[in-house]
From TrEMBL:
This is Beta-xylosidase. Keywords: Signal. Residues 1-15 form the signal peptide. The lineage of its organism: Bacteria, Bacillati, Actinomycetota, Actinomycetes, Kitasatosporales. It comes from Streptomyces crystallinus.
Length: 421
């Protein structure tokens, strides 16, 4: 039999669609100008296009062209804008998702257009099926000389769908959910937190989050007979960027909800003769690249059969999300087809995975178990959930195709599809 090969095909996510929608914006009263009825251009993106029930999906709402502009003649310096908003879920799962962005912007000239900005938030998938995501209302808060808000609402809600994720069934579903009365506030402000689907009568801890770590902002509340609660949380820690709720002594994925995005608007004046320096760390994405898309494997002899061996093209995984979730890289293969319709069953392909972690990465990857790949698939590598995850990893595998004796001579090929989630 001639040399065999396998094509490596990475799983692809559906591309998000930019959408335009009519928006009604109300400038601050000090500006002395009437409301603005204009058009907003925005786009919704997600880190998981095909999540399972129970997965947490990170959503990014990017306003590429706001309907509003700087309402005053005074030029605004960089990094004084704090955007907040919401994303509307529809289809298999409904509700509003709070999103918030960092205080980061380019300088804005007097009466000039506001620059683009992004806001992020998360939601837990509670039902299988297609879930649509549409951009919703947003607010632009500016902190310069005085605190000003420019709220913008969708004129004809909901806005057009920008992204759709297709959820599949998972294991036991955690349907706990948490929502905030507002997505931002000054240090010391209180925010109303409501929860649903918690255990009836359970003591629930409501806490602030800074990335994967909890802040000192905490409150406790008892869920009612329907598993719902409503309480207020005073947010003092300027690092708080999200709010979670959970049952038990500490956070767990199966008894918690959130984080719901929250942004602290730090309006503390700088001391005389000083300058306040503001920075932020922007969360990235989970992605992979591969060194090639074809694998050459050894030829075996007709009549004898045996193992046709090769090595996968190296896969590099970058996890720059900065959250508590790990990842898994899985693969499944088609039957190997040859001349005249001849084939070698997918179950005949096996692998021995290996993976390496780049120094300094918070997570450590673990190689999957040696064994068959087949059409059902197998795990190539994983990293676990933890308080803080992330890093860079390289993943390889030795592959071997067990070719039966007297398999028809010729070239055979199958397609191995890798999925990172």
């Amino acid at each position: 039999m001639a040399g065999t090969g396998a094509l490596i095909a990475p799983a692809q996510a559906l591309a998000a669609t930019p959408v335009d929608f009519a928006t009604h914006c109300v400038p601050p009263p000090i500006a002395g100008i009437p409301p603005i009825d204009g058009t907003t251009t925005a786009q919704i993106t997600v880190d998981k296009a095909a999540p399972k029930v129970g997965d947490t999906v990170t959503v990014t709402y990017t306003v590429t062209k706001p309907a509003a502009s700087n309402p005053v003649d005074l030029a605004l310096p960089a990094d004084i804008m704090t955007p907040t908003g919401k994303v509307t879920l529809g289809g298999a799962q409904s509700g509003d998702l709070a999103v918030a962005g960092p205080k980061k912007n380019d300088p804005v000239p007097g009466k000039g257009a506001f620059p683009p900005f992004s806001m992020t938030g998360t939601f837990t998938v509670t039902a299988p099926g297609a879930i649509t995501l549409s951009p919703g209302d947003y607010n632009i808060h500016t902190s310069y000389i005085m605190e000003l808000d420019t709220p913008c609402t969708v004129t004809n809600p909901p806005a057009p769908v920008s992204e759709t994720v297709t959820a599949t069934g998972g294991g036991q579903t955690n349907q706990r959910a948490v929502q905030l009365g507002t997505a931002s506030g000054k240090p010391g402000a209180t925010v109303t937190v409501t929860g649903s689907k918690f255990t009836a009568g359970a003591t629930v801890t409501v806490a602030g989050r800074a990335g994967a770590a909890e802040t000192a902002d905490k409150a406790t509340v008892t869920a009612d007979a329907q598993g719902a609660f409503s309480t207020t949380l005073t947010v003092n820690d300027k690092a708080t960027s999200g709010i979670v709720a959970y049952e038990g002594a500490s956070w767990s994925d199966d008894k918690g909800a959130g984080p719901a995005a929250y942004s602290v608007v730090d309006d503390t004046p700088a001391p005389p003769n000083s300058q306040k320096l503001n920075s932020s760390v922007k969360a990235g994405t989970l992605s992979m690249t591969q060194a090639g898309d074809a694998v050459s494997m050894d030829a075996v002899d007709f009549g004898k059969g045996g193992f046709s061996r090769g090595s996968l093209q190296t896969v590099t995984v970058q996890d720059f999300r900065g959250g508590p979730a790990g990842w898994s890289l899985t693969g499944k293969v088609t039957d190997f087809t040859g001349p005249g319709g001849a084939k070698i069953d997918a179950s005949k392909l096996g692998w021995t995975p290996v993976c390496a972690t780049k120094a300094g990465s918070p997570s450590t990857c673990a190689a999957g178990s040696p064994g068959p790949v087949g059409g059902a698939g197998a795990t190539l590598a994983t990293t676990p959930n933890a308080a803080l995850t992330g890093g860079e990893f390289t993943v390889d595998a030795r592959v071997s195709l067990n070719v039966p004796a007297f398999t028809a001579p010729g070239a055979y090929s199958g397609v191995l599809t890798l999925t990172l989630a």
